[in-house]
Structure formats: C-alpha cells, structure tokens
Write a structure and sequence with these properties.
Number of strands: 6
Structural class: alpha+beta
Number of helices: 2
Shape: elongated
Distance between the termini: 21 Å
Largest sheet: 6 strands, antiparallel
Number of domains: 1
C-alpha cells in the first residue's frame, strides 16, 4: 500500500513537472520573438476571481508601436487584494509586431511564475517520492537482513 501511495505522489509530481515545463516552453517564444517596449497602466480592471468573495485586479496597459499606433490590452494575470500596479505606472510590454493587440506584460512574474511554481512543485514531489522509495526500501532490506522476529516487536 505504501508503495502505491508513493507511486501516486511520484506520478502527480511528474505530471506537474511536465506541465510546468510545457508552460515554460509556451512562454519562451513570447520572450524570444516578440518586440519589447514600455507601456503605461491606464486602468485597473477588477474581475471576479475563482471564489465567491475574491476579486482580481488586472492592469490595463496602453503602449505605442513604432508606427505610433496606440494599443491597449488587459493583462492575463493579476493579483487579489493589493492591485500591484498603480495607474500611471510604466511597465515593460512584449507584443507581437504582426498583431500588436497580442501583448503581455514583460515582467518576470507574468512570464515565468506559473511555470516555475508548477515545475518546482512537481520536482519537489518527484524528489520526495524517490527519496522515500530509497529510504523505505533500505529499511525493509535491513529488517529482512536481521532475520525473522528480530526486527518487529509485537
């Protein structure tokens, strides 16, 4: 039974590690291929969060492309409680030059935090499962080496 539980934790960890890696691989082309500029937070949109009482503050950012076209977008991730950004704050923006409306905030947290958290959680579960597999296996080998009746007291 303990082996099954460790295997389940290991598989969950492996799935989270793969998900975090795939999420990171999805973010990398945005970082690599998109143009970078500065934008200004012009509004803080408030949207309903995952639970009934939570609200998420999403910065609405405006920036100009090299041909002076004004583009406005709402960040895909925000924060609950403290908005994290004030109206008028200058922020880094990454955008697709072919489709400037496809833009994101260029901060480390916006690009990488979700993939790093998922991958870190998965890595921790996988390592913990491996460590426990080894420890339990060595413990059971030691019990068997002691012979019958010497390892367990009843």
């Amino acid at each position: 039974m303990k082996w099954a539980i460790l295997l389940i934790f290991g598989m969950i960890g492996l799935a989270a590690l793969v998900a975090g890696t795939l999420w990171g691989l999805e973010s990398y082309p945005v970082f690599r291929d998109n143009a970078q500029t500065q934008g200004t937070v012009v509004e803080l949109a408030v949207e309903k969060g995952g639970t009934a009482s939570d609200f998420v503050h999403l910065p609405v950012v405006e920036f100009s492309t090299p041909d002076n076209a004004k583009v406005r977008f709402k960040a895909v991730a925000g924060s609950d409680g403290d908005p994290g950004y004030d109206v008028g704050t200058t922020v880094d923006v990454l955008y697709d030059p072919r489709n400037p409306a496809n833009a994101r905030l260029g901060s480390f947290g916006q690009l990488w935090s979700a993939s790093l958290m998922a991958g870190g959680f998965g890595l921790a579960l996988v390592l913990m499962s491996i460590l426990l597999f080894v420890k339990i296996g060595r413990f059971e080998e030691g019990i068997k080496a002691m012979g019958p009746g010497k390892g367990a007291r009843g």
